[in-house]
Specification:
69% helix, 2 domains, mainly alpha, 336 residues
Length: 336
């Protein structure tokens, strides 16, 4: 477990507030944790998972004003976790309103699902949203941040989650300004030959060139041990299914040693649409711009802050029980 960070004051102090069982410090913990999260323009997939896990536990326990305040703040934050936004969007209308009006991460499928499930004022707010093509264009820095987050989310996901992401991209409102083109027969032959000869460097360079992505993104595609990224690249370039199968068998030993895994990836290739694959390639292209950018200064040690919050939340849950045990023990001592 990580040690408390001196750059995250507040969370450790909240633990002390928990000594008084009459004080519910969960709204304060939610506010402070969110303050820390909003200090950074973007987060890794692991950071987002920590925050999402803690906040979903807290919003089930805090009152309406605390949830409404959280919704107001996250609705204006481009890197807000989608799972948290969806939970708030399904809350009471005074909580859901800013999320349904302003949150940019929802697909039309998400909004249609919320409208059908809740109806009434929720459906009216959703109907009043401007269509994606009429919404103002996002600044380049926001697009870059969102692309990095989406790319990180995909790579952090397990195979079943990756499949869901890829199928969902079929309906994502992503504009394909310069979609990847199908490869020529000669280029396909050269790519396949390189893969069969374990010439990974050539494959990396070819994907970098044909997909117009950074070298780092191309390396991630080739070296991924689960295999979905190379399936996406193959679909975007319209490679034949048998070529992909041979590449999977020979290029990555971890994949090639499992016939079942090669079969599963072949099934994914068959199910995946070219449009969905090219949407993920478009995300990787935008994210490629961050590969050459210098690393920014961390404003807070977020991981340590999240760990402190986890401990604080656990402590708050434990102390009422400890207080009851202490009270019982005291009464027994007096009775003895």
């Amino acid at each position: 477990m990580l040690e408390p960070s001196s750059t995250s004051p507040g969370l450790e102090d909240l633990v002390d507030v928990g000594h008084d069982s009459d004080v519910d410090m969960r709204p304060t913990l939610l506010r402070v944790l969110t303050d820390l999260y909003l200090q950074r323009p973007g987060h890794t997939a692991e950071d987002e998972r920590y925050y999402t896990e803690l906040v979903l536990r807290l919003i089930d326990a805090v009152d309406v004003p605390a949830r409404a305040g959280l919704a107001e703040r996250l609705a204006r934050y481009p890197a807000a976790p989608r799972a948290v936004l969806l939970a708030l969007a399904r809350d009471r209308i005074e909580i859901a309103a800013p999320i349904l009006k302003d949150a940019p991460c929802f697909t039309q499928s998400d909004l249609a699902s919320v409208a059908a499930e809740l109806g009434g004022a929720h459906a009216e707010l959703i109907a009043s949203r401007a269509p994606p093509d009429q919404q103002p264009a996002k600044p380049d820095d926001v697009r870059l941040q969102e692309a990095c987050e989406l790319s990180g989310l995909f790579y952090a996901a397990v195979p079943s989650e990756r499949r869901c992401i890829l199928i969902g991209l079929e309906y994502a409102p992503i504009v394909l300004a310069h979609p990847a083109a199908a490869m020529q027969r000669t280029d396909i032959w050269q790519l396949e030959s390189a893969a069969l000869q374990h010439n990974v460097e050539f494959v990396i360079r070819e994907l970098e060139r044909t997909l117009a992505i950074s070298r780092r993104q191309s390396q991630r595609i080739v070296s991924d041990e689960s295999g979905e990224p190379i399936v996406v690249a193959a679909k975007a370039l319209e490679l034949p299914a048998d070529v992909l199968q041979r590449m999977l068998l020979f290029m990555n030993p971890r994949i090639g040693q499992s016939v079942d895994r090669v079969y599963e990836l072949g099934q994914l290739f068959a199910e995946l649409s070219i449009a969905a694959a090219r949407r993920l390639i478009a995300i990787w292209r935008v994210a490629s711009a961050a590969d050459s950018a210098p690393a920014g200064h961390e404003k807070i040690a977020w991981r340590a802050a999240a760990e402190n919050a986890r401990r604080a939340l656990a402590e708050v849950s434990r102390r009422p029980a400890l207080a009851r045990h202490a009270s019982i023990a005291t009464r027994r001592g007096r009775g003895g």
